[in-house]
Amino acid sequence: MNLPLTIAMPAEASAGPKTYRLLIDGKFVDARDGRTLERNSPGHGFTVSRYAQAGAAEVEAAVTAAHKAFETGPWPRMKAAERAAILLKAADLIEARLEEIARLDALESGKPIAQARGEIGGAVDIWRYAAALARTLHGESYANLGDAMLGVVLREPIGVVSIIAPWNFPFLIVSQKLPFALAAGCTTVVKPSEMTSASTFVLGDILMQAGLPDGVVNILAGLGADVGAPMVSHQLVEMVSFTGSTRVGKMTMASAANSLKKVSMELGGKNGQIVFPDADLEAAADAAVFAGFFNAGECCNAGSRLIVHEAIADDFLGAVKALTARVTVGDPLDISTKVGAMISSEHLAKVTGYVAAAANDGSSVYSGGKQIASSAGQYLDPTILRGVTEDMAIAREEVFGPVLSVLTFESIEGALRIANNTPYGLSAGVWSASIDTCMSVARNVRSGTVWVNTFMEGYPELPFGGYKQSGLGRELGKRAVEDYTEEKTIQFHRGQRTGWWVG
Ligand code: NAD
Q1: Ligand 1 geometric centre to CA of 224 (Å)
Q2: How far away, in angstroms, is 164 Cα from ligand 1 center?
Q3: Which domain holds residue 116?
Q4: 87 with 205, same domain?
Q5: What's the CATH code of the domain at 139?
Q6: What SS3 state is found at 333?
Q7: Where do the Aldehyde dehydrogenase domain residues begin and end (predicted)?
């Protein structure tokens, strides 16, 4: 790697920040008090975006609009086929603006542009999948209750849903929630992260163009305490769909409990990849590097704990280190970049603090470990730590940076103990040619997803979510729309009722 990094300034730097207004009841509006939030590109250092900054008044207006749209508007009442048509139109419009959206996400989050394009393409696919599910949503009927009875179980949209999203996959994560809530017939208030809101406002524009009725989707930029918190506690909100840290997830659940709202939680992870000696070690080494450093490790699914069999540790880690040296770190807008900028200087300091603490605890830096000097922005060298043990904070806590912690094992029982020795349970990976080994790990690891001889693939068809403190509920998959519904049981009685109570 050539140090320091020289970062070229893109055209956006001289054009000045793009401005975005809140979407409330079908109109783009400024905040009532005129406040704005700015976002600097973490990879380049210039101001990319300026958003109107919502507060309590805007939350009230957005929830009221969503509630009105739910109570009296056409969206929950129209045919699923009509809702699906609008979702499909939205998917087409997202696809048409893919480059614009990907560039905004890359500029605001620091992620590589090639990766951002992949994410937006993936989001298009999810919107189409949700449209298909809208038309297959159905309840149940029971004709087995005796000749006089018919039981019907309806699936009805749950109501107003607050959707709160993090910064690491700005457009993709909103797309793992919103189209399913819409497919069910819900109305929504959406809060993207205050650091990466631009692409969600483009989505708002697209949805209005696609023909979504006013008030069905409202979008607010703002801080968690000012906007996220009242979106959770508001009495007219029936469900909260939250993706973010376990810390804020717990606060959100506690607040939602006041009005007994339904919550769906996609939270942090500390995922292990277990490598056995009989694996395809070349493929496993490449996947280990991908899992550790993809999205600069700012990924709930990051395979941040590499759990390697003692017998192969030296050779395998040698291969991992050699591959790591070839990972291009640099300008998020450069097509060849694999690892872009860190989201903020505060977050970079937190990650380097974890590395320093791990060294203090007795592990050693095997590769990287240093901030990369750059002409703009903040970058961290992909880092590998050896000699990590289960008791260290680096082995148990979510670091959320390009830091791979290596632990070793001697037996499958030991590997499983290490993999499960964390409060999280989002995902895990196992590498072995033996079906017995793979099945033993897959069955005994406590996580919502297990990848066998692959890592971090995702499909709209497959449910995603966490065990333990990684979350509550599942997103995606064929039941994703059902999650945004209530069940209503209707019992029909035919003829005169028998078995009177008083007589
Ligand atoms: P965060 O918890 O700090 O913020 C997430 C969202 O919550 C933001 O929009 C924020 O403004 C909002 N928020 C903050 N305080 C709030 C409050 N008091 N009430 C309501 N909302 C509030 O998380 P982050 O730093 O943006 O994202 C990184 C975290 O997200 C990591 O822990 C990562 O593992 C997790 N994540 C999980 C998944 C998953 O699918 N499991 C996916 C992506 C990210």
Answers
A1: 9
A2: 8
A3: 11-267+470-488
A4: yes
A5: 3.40.605.10
A6: coil
A7: 29-490
